[in-house]
Each structure stands twice: as C-alpha cells, then as structure tokens.
Amino acid sequence: MGLPAGSRRRTAGLRREEVAQLAGVSTTYYTFLEQGRDVRPSRQVVAALAGALRLSSAERAHLFQLAGITLAADDQAQAETVAPVVGAMVGRLDPFPAYLKGRRWDVLAANRAARALFADWPARAPGDRNKVWWMFTDPAARKVYVDWEQEASDMLARFRAAAARRLDDPDFTDLIERLHQASPEVRDWWPRYEVQPVGGGTKHLHHPALGDVAFQHAVLQVADHPEQMLVYFTTADVPESKLADLAAEMS
C-alpha cells in the first residue's frame, strides 16, 4: 500500500488512521464514517476512499450507492465488453432469436435469428447499433412490430427508467439528444415522464417469410455485468425448422 513499515499487527488489514491517510482525510472524519455518524461525504471523499481501499468496479459502484451519490461520468462511461461465454451462448440459442443489450440498450451481440427478425446489427454503423435508436429511426422497425406505436411507447418508458439511473452518463445524454432531434414521437412522448420496468411477455412481430407471429420473450440479467440483459424469444406458432431456415439466410 506504500505505507512505511511499522509494528506487528494483531489483526490483518489497514489501521483506521492508515485508511484516512491513504484517502487524504482526517482520522476523526474517517472514524465518523465508520461509526455511521450523520456526516455527508463528498463525491471526492468517496472516490478517495474507493481508491484507498482498492475496490473493484462493482464494489466502487456499491460504495457510491451507499453514500447516495450518482457515479460520475468518468466512472460510468466505460466501453462495454461481452464475456466470451455469454457471446457464445447467444449464438448457440439459434434458431430462436436472442440478443444481448448493454446499459444504454446498445446491441452488443445477436444471433442469426435475431438479426433476421429485427436488424443486421453488425452491418450497421457502430453508433446505430442501439435498440431504441433503431425503433424510432428505422422505418423497418414499424414493419417488424405489429403494434409499433404501443411497443415504441413502452420501450421509451423502459429506457427512461434506465436513463434515470445514469443522469451523469454522457452516452445516455448524447443518445437522448439524438433521439429528440430524429423522432417526433420521442419529442411528444418524453415529456410524459412515463416509466416501466424491464420484463418478459409477448411480442407480436412480423416477418415477410413468417407472417405475424406471437413470440414469448424473457429478459435475463448477466450476473458479472448487471446492466447487460440477454433477451430471448421463443414461439409455438412457427416450426423450429422454419426459424432455422430464416436464420440460415444470415450466415
């Protein structure tokens, strides 16, 4: 930890005054924090304590949450990565559509069936590989969703709830501004302040080769990256072989 050698310790770990020294705060103030006194640490103090204690990203986020402080933009706006095992699982769910969305609802991975049903995400520009952006700016989305207006309104309400947890994230701010510029529906609906939780259910989707199909879908959280969600679709209305033929077109 870069501290000078001292006397033998009775217990493992840093002493209270050492944590305070590493964080650049007084021992008295740090003691009050440990004791749960009614003190309000600043963002800088919480960040300093997280650094002094060498917290992981998850532990750091939890510390900020306990302090009632929103993570700063530089803590939040980090490139998202997909664990190889999660990416492989998305692919192996073919021929049933599945995709992985990130904290801002960027599509981080999608199998062939999902690309055939919704959009060929890897072929899109990096900034356009986003489910909300696609929903409101791509005319194809209005053909995929049988009841586009209701589905789009619900999606925007769920996205607003996600954005509320990322008030200082510049990636969210940028996307929201772009959506307002590009979509009259977003401009009309955003001021309603409607929010909805993320969850499963039934989606009525259309594909030229399948017609109108009722898909049941589930949303699963990735434990190692809690803001990444695996969305999986299944249906009893279409034979699996027909879905496989559809997925094969994206090979």
Features:
251 residues; alpha+beta; five-stranded antiparallel β-sheet; 45% helix; elongated
Report on this structure.
It is a single chain. The protein is α+β, with helices and mostly antiparallel strands and 251 residues long. It has 13 helices and five strands. The protein has helices at residues 16-23, 27-34, 43-52, 57-66, 73-76, 84-92, 112-117, 131-137, 139-144, 148-164, 170-182, 184-189, 240-248, and strands spanning 98-101, 107-110, 201-207, 211-222, 225-234. It has a five-stranded antiparallel sheet with strand order 2-1-5-4-3. A hairpin with a 2-residue loop joins strand 4 (211-222) and strand 5. Helix 1 (16-23) crosses helix 2 and helix 1 packs across helix 3. The protein starts with 15 loop residues before the first helix and ends with a helix. The mean pLDDT is 89.
Cα radius of gyration in angstroms: 23 Å
**Could you report the average pLDDT, rounded to the nearest whole number?**
89
- The side-by-side strand order for the widest beta sheet comes to 2-1-5-4-3
Principal-axes geometry comes out as elongated
Low-confidence stretches: none
Task: Tell me briefly what this model is.
It contains 13 helices and 5 strands. With 251 residues, the chain is of the alpha+beta class.
Layout: helices, strands, pairs:
Elements: H1 16-23, H2 27-34, H3 43-52, H4 57-66, H5 73-76, H6 84-92, E1 98-101, E2 107-110, H7 112-117, H8 131-137, H9 139-144, H10 148-164, H11 170-182, H12 184-189, E3 201-207, E4 211-222, E5 225-234, H13 240-248
Antiparallel strand pairs: 1-2, 1-5, 3-4, 4-5
Helix pairs in contact: 1-2, 1-3, 3-4
